[in-house]
Amino acid sequence: MIILAFETSCDETSVAVVRDGRILSNVVASQTALHSEYGGVVPELATREHLRNIGPVTRRALAEAGVEPSQIDAVAATQGPGLPSALLVGLKYSQALAFALRKPFYGVNHHEAHLYSPWIGGTSPQADFEAFRPSVSLIVSGGHTLLVLVEGELRHRVLGGTLDDAAGECFDKTAKLLGLPYPGGPEVDRLAREGNPNAFDFPRPMMRDPGDDFSFAGLKTSVRYLVQKNPALLERRETVCDLCASVQAAIVEVLVAKTVRAARRHGVSWVTASGGVTCNEGLRYALAAACARQGLKLRLAGRSLCTDNAGMVGVLAEMKIRSGALPVSLDVEIDPAMTLAGNAA
Ligand code: KG4
Ligand code: ZN
Description:
The protein is α/β, with parallel strands linked by helices. The chain has two domains: 2-118 and 308-343, ATPase, nucleotide binding domain (Nucleotidyltransferase, domain 5); 133-300, ATPase, nucleotide binding domain (Nucleotidyltransferase, domain 5). It is 43% helix and 19% strand. Helix 5 crosses helix 6 (184-192) and helix 5 packs antiparallel against helix 8 (237-266). The radius of gyration is 20 Å and the shape is globular. Bound molecules: 5'-O-[(R)-(carboxyoxy)(hydroxy)phosphoryl]adenosine and zinc ion. The site of 5'-O-[(R)-(carboxyoxy)(hydroxy)phosphoryl]adenosine has 19 residues, from helix 5 and helix 6.
């Protein structure tokens, strides 16, 4: 089965061709450079770029996969959550294509696409559902921080989420306070490698809370107070590296502790992580170390599949089709506030 998949929920225009769980092409046109000038995603600009890019990106994805439009069996696109005007471009374009090609259409939940992305192999982009096992899964990106119990293929239940800022948002906002360019996450990650994670003692919000929710707004505020009171801290590169390492350590420690604790509580032997923040070296390393200590097995989304991409959308659509999901109507609308619906026992 060949699926043409689309992802335009934020600032990446991505189109992928997936055949039998294998990603044949996964083209991502990133708008990071465009938005960095404004310190965040500007919805109007994102929409204009999606409109400009979606045709060429689609043609490239088909060409790289060596697939003709007539060979496609189904079309899938992210339906939500995300920026309304950005979602609209990918959804309407893909629905028009499905109509023209007379192919079934599937709308996909962006969170759910991240959720199953760790099972797509790193080097060979092949979904490894043979190895698939129940897990506690951390989804961490710019817009979301979720802990999910996955009981089986497409059977999952949200355990907790953030009460305020998402983990990626915390990286991006603290980076801004430290005078670093947007998006701050990768920059903090890079500078943290040269810094001392114990140099500054930032709070570990909700770390001792027995529930599975997170909160990162307080951490960001403590960074703000610190640099407002001591602006000289930002004058030395060495100190900025220490600040990055200390902020990252605080975020990572909370994410890892709560994920591992939830895995133990639910008696699963696997932990997975996905979403843009899973690119973070500190998080990858700390999760690996904590899982090894606790006898848990770990699957991290491959680096190129952590940030938004259509490959994960296509693989999820195929899982759904295999499990008997029916196509949705071609006039189905975007759902910008779509949540991760649970269907586990
Ligand atoms: O999944 P994603 O591409 O988009 C959303 O669905 O939000 O995630 C983007 C987020 C941004 O907040 C970005 O700063 C963060 O992921 N991110 C990182 C790293 N790479 C991307 N955060 C920390 N360290 C990184 N290396
Ligand atoms: Zn995402």
